[in-house]
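User: My advisor asked me to double-check a structure prediction for 2,4-dienoyl-CoA reductase before group meeting. I don't want to rely on an old file, so could you generate it fresh from this sequence?
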Amino acid sequence: MSRQDILFTPVDLGKLQVKNRVAMAPMTRMYSPGNVPNSKNIAYYKARAEGGVGLIITEGTFVGHKAAIAYPNVPAFSGEDSLAGWKKVVDAVHEAGGKIAPQLWHVGGIRRPGVNPGGDEPGHSPSGMAKPGKVTGHAMEQADIDEVIAAFAKAAADAKKIGFDAIELHGAHGYLIDQFFWDGTNVREDEYGGDLAGRSRFALELVKAVRAAVGEDFPIIFRFSQWKQQDYTARLCETPEELEGFLKPLSDAGVDIFHCSTRRFWEPEFEGSDLNLAGWARKLTGKPTITVGSVGLNQDFLPENGFVEFNEAEPASLDNLLERFEKDEFDMVAVGRALIANPDWANQVQDGKFEDLAAYEKDMLQKLV
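Assistant: Sure, here is a fresh prediction for 2,4-dienoyl-CoA reductase from the sequence you gave:
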């Protein structure tokens, strides 16, 4: 056996069984004119499934709410045409032997009027802010909160109906759900604000609504992060105790798997322990976790002043990752740019063909199928 074989053992995530421990990380590509998945989207995901990925988590796909999206040509997860497109993606991935979950997304306050669908609708967020200290959009009222929660529940039910194997809720990176979590963008004085427990209320209600919509047996993945694209140094939790207080209610509400987003997977999350964020989440909740963050490459994935245009990077050693799997720190790893540069990255790694791995080059995310 080779050392990397640990990545290619089946993994039981409770309600989701996957053939190996390699996931595809969600990456926004803006490759869907009219917001409908097309033949290029189908080929893109099918190629990664054929290349050995066990679980594909799609690019962010926005739920059916009037202010859900901020970028053009992003695939929707509502409407007959978009869902029919996603059904073709699901069928292609299954045919190639993989499993797939859509990442359900609402951008919140990051939206600016003028992007369709949505037209002149401003960004919706807990306090009208996309980043601390500057009101640029609509502070959500109870009716807005109810509408967004209903949109997520409908999208989750539709995902199950058209054959997805799980869903992922995007609760990270300073988008809507995370804007409620973050004290920099949530200064509400009602039950949805205050301390982190209060700021978590929106997410807890959303998770419970999604659980009710999909039933008890359908897997719910929840992606969260400490960092925000508006502030890489932001932190929701400074101690393991705070992290437990944050994650346990989400687990109890219906989250089955935590996808723990970091910029560098190898970095310890708290002083006094080598565990990364996924390691701590697994230890504190007992739920399966997915780690992510510049896997297999020698440069962080985001420039200090950028989003979407990811940093170029060369292939790098997997030794640290494999050591953490050997210690049973987390359950899966999500791979991003390395899978853009190498659709068959998983098969190449399994076969030990490290010298054949290509570097990630500028603009590959948008240009490559």
